[in-house]
Sequence to fold (863 residues):
Amino acid sequence: MSHENEAQAGPIREYLTFTLGPEEYAIDILRVQEIRGYDQVTAIANTPKFIKGVINLRGAIVPIVDLRIKFKLSEPVYNQFTVVIILNVADRVVGVVVDSVSDVIGLAEGAIKPPPEFGGAFDTQYLLGLGTVDERMLILVDIEQLMTSQEMALVGASAEGEN
Amino acid sequence: MSLDMSQFLQVFFEETEEHLAALEQQLLTIDVASPDAEALNAIFRAAHSIKGSSGMFGFDDLTSVTHVLETLLDKLRSHEVTLQAEMIDVFLQARDVLWQLMDGHRNGAPAAPALGAEMLQRLQALTAAAMAAANGETPAAAQLEDDADAGFGFFADAPGLPDIDAPIVLAESFADEVEAPQVFGFFSDAPGAPKAEPAASAEDDLGYGFFVDLPDPKQEKKADAEAFGFFDDAPGAPSPEAEQAATQSSSAEPSTAAPVAPNPAPDSVPTKPPQAAAAVAETEPKADADNKPAAVAKAPAVKVDSESSSIRVSVEKIDTLVNLVGELVITQSMLNQLTGVLDPSEYERIFHALGQLEHNTRDLQEQVMSIRMLPISFVFSRFPRLVRDTSGKLNKKVELILQGEHTELDKGVIEKLADPLTHIVRNSVDHGIELPADRVAAGKPEQGTIRLSAFHQGGSIVVTIADDGKGLSRQKILAKAAEKGLSVNDNMSDSDVWQLIFMPGFSTAEQVTDLSGRGVGMDVVKRNIQSIGGRVDIDSALGVGTRITIRLPLTLAILDGMILSAGGVNYVIPLTYIVESMQPLREDIRSVNNEGQVIRVRGEYMPLYSLHELLGMAAKPPEPEQAIVIILEAEGRKFALLIDYLVGQQQVVIKSLEQNFHRIHGVAGATIMGDGSVALILDADALPQLAGQHELAYES
Fold:
């Protein structure tokens, strides 16, 4: 993470960054519908613990996933500072709870390094690569693939998962 | 005409479908012996409309078939030929051919030309035969061109109208886009001349002009759609020719028009005879004693269906509207909740306004929901034909009685109801009703009866299909079930036995009789009906008949629910499942095998589950004395559910969980409560299956 200018090739894309415990992640900004506070979630029976339940988002029933629980990165605390990122992935609206939302950054394609064999808490198949901004390492996540994966138990007929 | 017609194609197909449906319906109800003139006209109109619009789109196969059909129909309604049962059959087949041709165009794969050509020949042969049969002198009108069916213009039936010296008639006939040349002209009929055009265009959909009407009591004047004009009714001109002329007016060319009342009306003050009243429904009855035949007649460019004023709206738009109103209802109840803490005396005006809002919201919701409602006749209307065809094929005599066709229910429900109903009705004809000889031998009337009825009962719609056939045979079903390896015994109750025919694999092909069934099996019928929240029950008596009862929710969007609380969370259970609720006594609750629990309710034992346990909640179920037990009945079985307390009964708007999430076992959907929170709607059918899925110790 030294020569920043060397890799400024390719079109610049924007990413929303957020933190989960000590790690900083980035997702494609175009997948983000809105960011809102955490309130009034209706728990759903027989679903994995990281699925907090559903909320009423202007008339639509939207499931809320707590990534902190899913990836065991930090203790889930729900207070007025808890942030939910509402995502629009694969024609679905899904909310994810994270520790905090940092900012929106632009990254050139050339600035993204291939992911290492181990990808933080996320399986490498959901990682797009690693990016560097101001000496911060960002883990770029393919959020669409992650949210539609079997692991997240958000799509598909079964609600089986860890209880 | 370099207009892009493709944008109208969809409308054309929809309209043609409607016309064909109307045609079929009329054909099925018409009395062959003495056909109703209005029915014949309706059939003619349908054929005519299809001909006109198909010509516009260049679907020549449709045009040519309808043209011949229309020609024959026209002769029928002018009583040149008489209706025969055979004609009905051919007409119905023609309708099917037309449907196939239209479908071909719609799918971009036009049907084989032979299809249309063959029907064309049959119809022509039929026409020729009918004409030959109609022996005797054909009246003048018979030679008339059939093509000039829309006459536009001014027709002054001048005889005896003193203020008209030389009536000028402008006739323009061009309804038949394909064949008829456009005829413009002035026809001058001297007063008292034996040949005058008798209100020719009054017959047609597109007649504009001035008509002098001759109120012969028998005169049939059928300006059925849009005759605009001035009608001068000259009462007291009893002319038999007038009648004939009027009925044939659509096919009459002005020059060869039949003679008309030579006797002038003594008084030209317009008084409309009753027959004409219908004709003028859409007209501007500006009839004046002062008849100026000189006016401008204009041909309407677009044909508008004046019989039902409606617009086509995509279902999507309506659904959006329904959703928005649902939101409004929620917002409104949120407002109510927020203002509930205010002092009514201090904020009287706010409360007044809120009351108004609530009222308006409810009205709006009702109206919007009613947009989606359609009469069940949309499904029922297909059955007369189905029964006619099926029974004809099987050499059975079946009368179909429809009742309550105007019962309205949600479009979504209606669409999903069509297939199961078709299957049940076909089964009734196929397996239920016996052959005429067998019926007579059994002491029943030769003709079997199938009664289809629909009515409201409570918050649901009940549709019954009852036949007076041979009924279900208990032995045969039990034998078949045993053969299939299903666990059955002779002591099963009748209703349990009848339910067996809904088992998958109990297909109609091997069912009860050896006649083969088609299409979906009864298991699919049941599944389809359950998918729209309905229930199917069967009553049957051997030798007496079978009755299948389908219970359906009024709408798919709103549900009458009981809100209950368990573990601090609100849930909704559809009211239809709830039998009763009660406060249990500890001694009524027994455990069985130290695993499950049962509760005794008035001597009856039923399994008891706690909702907390079923849904795997962290919260422990309450002590029975502090809890409420609700008795539910699902899939024919009763069970009891232990909950914390009942919140109340409420209509809830059903929201899909699957849109952004997925289906969850035991949950039928979700709804939004007055405070904006989400409550889950429980699936009572699936709840008992959840028992035992969690290994939580139940310590009570």
